Amino acid sequence: MTDAPLPRIESVKPLPNYRLEVFLMGEGHPFIVSLSDRIARGGVFSSLRDPQTFARVRIGERRRTIYWPKPHDVRGDPVIDIDAESLLAEAERQSALA
């Protein structure tokens, strides 16, 4: 059995209303995922309510995650990071509900 390679993120672009446009390497088109529900629920994601903070989304070193520089823990590591597989699964779920 051959495992599929883990998806790698080529680019991420913040959009209005707490959405992200994500390109995966090797894919011909982006997908859009909304984080508005997570942000509305609060918790650690509540820090992303500020549009300027939300716009600071970054791609992780191995291109398998996105993260926000703040908030960070005592070691300086990001508190919020989401892997590419989870982003894609959430976008597919949102698309199915639309």
Sequence-ordered SSE layout with sheet pairings:
Layout: E1 9-15, E2 19-24, E3 31-34, H1 36-41, H2 51-54, E4 58-59, E5 65-67, E6 81-83, H3 84-97
Antiparallel strand pairs: 1-2, 2-3, 4-5, 5-6
Overview of the molecule:
This protein has 98 residues and is α+β, with helices and mostly antiparallel strands. It has a single domain, classed as NE0471 N-terminal domain-like (2-Layer Sandwich). The chain is built from three helices and six strands, in the order βββααβββα. Strands 1-2-3 form a three-stranded antiparallel sheet, with helices on one face. It has a three-stranded antiparallel sheet with strand order 4-5-6. The radius of gyration is 14 Å and the shape is globular.
Key words describing this protein structure:
98 residues, alpha+beta, NE0471 N-terminal domain-like, 3-stranded antiparallel β-sheet, 3 helices, 24% helix
Secondary-structure arrangement, i.e. CATH architecture: 2-Layer Sandwich
Supply the CATH class: Alpha Beta
Instruction: Give the N-to-C terminal Cα separation.
Output: 34 Å
- Would you tell me the structural class of the helices and strands? alpha+beta
Q: What's the rounded overall pLDDT mean?
A: 92
Tell me the radius of gyration. Answer: 14 Å
Domains (count): 1
User: What overall form do the CA principal axes indicate?
Assistant: globular
